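Reviewer comment 2.1 asked that we show a complete input and output for one of the modelled complexes. We chose the calcium ion case, as it is the one discussed in the main text.
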Amino acid sequence: MNGHSERTVLIVEDEEALATLLRYNLEREGYRVFESRDGEDALLLADENKPDLVLLDWMLPKLSGIEICRRLRGRGHMRNVPIVMLTARGEETDRIRGLDTGADDYIVKPFSMNELLARVRAVMRRVRPALVEDLLEIGEISIDRGNHRVRRGERDIHLGPTEYRLLDQLMQHPGRVFSREQLLDTVWGSDIYVEARTVDVHVGRLRKALNNTGERDPIRTVRSAGYSFDETFAKSDARMIG
Ligand code: CA
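Response of the prediction step:
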């Protein structure tokens, strides 16, 4: 469907409902997803598909998550692939053991989908910077930096260069509030004199371009502080799960 789905995630999780929910949300972010319910299957899938990241449940039938982690690390092509473990609350020593075994990160159940997706992005960025930074995607809005293409769902969004940089800046740090002065510095460059009010004008243009009638506005105006990209925009589903 889009050309960025080469980033693949292998989910190893025996709870079908959770695996399905993870798959749904990861696919919405543009990842290609493989699922397995147990360790042996996971090792086969990892060999066949060479995933870019593994989400690995701790408690699994047959092989434990830890054992799978160790075996994955033993495979040459999986040595540097990030592994994020999903653990139940309170397994502190297990978690530490997980990191010792070669997991890159862990997430404690129950977790919010927002948190999980943010962690996945962070790990991907850390391990495969070139791969991720070409494409910035939150919910249905995406920026392809390779060709400066912005989309909302199936729609192409045409932005002027300033609106483009503004959106890029805000989307790089969802939830973070930028003052007008900060945006002037990063988007316009600090050596150019522009009035702070100019930022409002360009945010207005950006909104007009992004939002059709009835669509949710991803940009929040934070009174007397500035603007931010709404970090809840990605999710219809911010419930706690797992
Ligand atoms: Ca489980």
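Residues 96 and 106 are 9 Å apart (CA to CA). We note this here for comparison with the apo prediction described in Section 3.2.
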